[in-house]
Amino acid sequence: METITSHPLPFFPTLLPDESLHSLISRFHRLSGNPRERQTLQDVFGTHALVATASLPSHLPNLCAALPVNAAQSLDELIDQWTLLPYFRPFLRPEQTTACLQAMTSHSAGGTKIGIGLVASRIGGRNVFRYCDQCCIEDEMRYGSPYWHRAHSLPGVLLCHLHGRLLAEVRADLVELRRHNLFLPSDSWVETASSILPMRETLCDDLFELAKASADLLAMQLPPTPRSVLRSFYREQAARQGWIDRNGRIEHAAVTHAANCFSLAQSAELDLAFCQIPDWIFRHLYKHRTTMHPLKHLVLMIMLQTSPRALQAYCENLDKSANVRILPYHGITPENELSSASCNARRQRFVEQISSIPARRAYDYMWLYKHDRQWLRETISRCAKPRATVRNKVAWHVRDREYAEQVRHHAALLYASDVRTRVSAAQLARATGRKPLIEKFSAKLPLTIQAIQALEETVDAYQCRRLQAIAKASRAKGEPLVRWRLLRTAGLTCPLAPQVEKLLAALLQGR
Ligand SMILES: [Zn+2]
Prior knowledge:
mainly alpha, 3-stranded antiparallel beta sheet, 27 helices, elongated
């Protein structure tokens, strides 16, 4: 049975710092004297069919209307201070934020988690009832009762962001049994059903950083940040870590190495299981369309040694500079970026950059190519750094003389020592160790080519040289010169070339 509360409640407790909505309603329940929780839920939300543990609860206008005059809050204030939307909002698209707000003001926020990708992320499965012993003691001293803190309930938060102590967690099965009940950390069953979370000491430093960053993000109440700005922020930080080279290319090996060495990759915590495979980091650094869970953003910030506050400062600086947001990297361009101020700023930066780097490597090249191509062409032809000319860089005449000398030297050696191989042009070029270069740039090496052509041995000349060498060796051994043996040793078959035949006849006659 659902009714809209028409009359404000006679009283309502004040929200304590970082208190969760469930905690606040639980405290109200204690003070109200209602015998059953469903009556309290009916009083506050106008319905008892509601789980007050939800991070993004529905029926909020009813809650607003039920607040007494002295505790009145606007709906926006209530959402910022009583729900976990500020934790998700910076990483949502504006339309997703609008859908969340609509769901929270309606009678069902069930589809919200699917709409903003929380279900797909498989993060946040752990029950949210965690508390810090030290916080409980201090809360009791200051406010008279321990209460549930929003920051302790965030996924991946296993340490207190204030005290660095491991949180105690209430047994999940008991929480499930009592999901329609309203309870506080001081309840006797909660104390007996809780245990300190086991954690390896090596993980504590990074987990503490994660807890502090999560609490900060929740408290800062940032607006939705455009993905292109998030990406350029991460890329700037990544470049500082050596993950991106000076040309803007991502060093995959460096990213993978950092991800493997990161302590939280060793964590057995289910919500942090994504750290074990580094793909999600690349999705942050490249253009992507998916909504990523805030925990993935926060873990990346810790890896990059930055924080939500640095992101806030980055966004503020972007807004200040020329009152336009200029993306330092190629990305989806919102319509409002097509303003003339933005275009002029890009033009100016492009002109500055192309004096030192090639135009195509300038940050704004692609944007200008898409939106301002005529100006781009004219500017490149007018201002671009002239291409370094390769002409005259090589002293070809010096090389030519050097290679020609090498050819002559090697030819003399080959003629003197090797009768088994013909001294061909290829053999002479190969002997210099520069055969491919001589073949490719033959036109620039006239002396070398002349030397090769002059010293190359013809087939007839080689056969003659070989016969002379064999005859000389036979004489030295005192063997008689016989035609068939000379031919067989020289590997020659008839008919012989006239020049060779003439030499053979002379050798046989003993001349
Ligand atoms: Zn604490």
